[in-house]
Amino acid sequence: MEHSSSFNNGHLYAVTACESSGDTLGEGLIRAIRKRDPKARFVGVFGPKMRKAAGKQSLQLFDMEDLAVMGIGEVLKSLPRILKIRRDLISFLKKNKPLVYVGIDAPDFNLHVELKLKESGIPTVHYVSPSIWAWRQSRIYKIKAATDMVLSILPFEKDFYERFDAPCTYVGHRLAREIPMNVPMSAARLALSFSDEAMKSNQIVGVLPGSRVAEIKFLTPEFAEAAYELQKKYPVMRFISATTTRAKAELLSKLWQK
Predict the structure, then answer these.
(1) Which residue positions in the chain have pLDDT lower than 50?
(2) Is the separation of the CB atoms in 217 and 248 below 8 Å?
(3) Spacing of C-alpha 255 from chain mean position
(4) Could you report the per-residue pLDDT of 101-135, keeping only the tens digit for each?
(5) Which single residue of 14, 170, 203, 206 could bond 98 by disulfide (Cβ 3.0 to 4.6 Å)?
(6) How many CB atoms neighbour CB 64 within 10 A?
(7) Host domain of residue 162
(8) Same domain, 189 and 153
(9) In terms of domains, do 165 and 44 share one?
(10) Helices marked H in 17-156
(11) Are residues 114 and 141 in the same domain?
C-alpha cells in the first residue's frame, strides 16, 4: 500500500467498521465530526454509508465486506487475507498519523489495531463496548491497554468501566433517537402491502438471516426451506425480510427463489 504524505492535511480521522451496524454508527460519527471540523478527512475501513458521508476527499483503504466472514471454514480460509488487511491498515495509519483512530465494534479486529496505534502515539477510541459485563470480564484489561476512551451505547456500561478505572463515555445509540418507539399498525400494514387475510391471521413471519453477505449466502437457503415447509402447513402464512442494501436484497431474493 502506497503512502502519500500529502493526504494528511492536519485534519485526518481514521475510522473502521466491519459490519452494517458499525457502518450506520460510523456514518453518524463522520457527520458529527465534520460539523465540528469542516476540513476533516477520513481514512479507514468503510461501508457504503460511511463512504458516502466521508466524501471524495477521504480514503477508503478497504471495504468492510472484505472482513465479513462466517463459519469456521471460511474464517480459516480468509485468515491470511484478514491479517494482511490488518497489517496494511496499521502500517498506513502509523505513517499518516491521524488525529485519532476510532474502531467501531468488531473487537477481535479493532482492539489489536488500537493497541498497535496507541503504542505508536496515536490516540485510540473503541466505539461500542464488548459485552465484558456479561462474559470474559478479563478483557477489560486488554481494552484498557488498547484504548484511550470507550464510547458506550448502553447506559450501565460506564459504571462498569469506572470500577476498573477505564475511561468510558456513554453516547447512546443513534437509532434510538431516529426510530420511533411506537409505529402505528395501520401504517405498517400499508407499507408492507400484505392482504387483510394474512394480517388478521397473525401469520406474518420475519426472516432475518443477517446483515453480512456471508450470512445471507449461508443462512437464506435453510430459512427458505423451513418457510416452504411452514407454508405447506399454513397456506395463509407470509414471510418478510429486511436487508441493509439493495444489492443484498437482490441476493436474498435470488437465493430464496432457488
Answers:
(1) 1-3
(2) no
(3) 23
(4) 999 999 999 999 999 999 999 999 999 999 998 88
(5) 14
(6) 25
(7) 12-177
(8) no
(9) yes
(10) 20-36, 48-54, 72-96, 107-119, 139-146
(11) yes
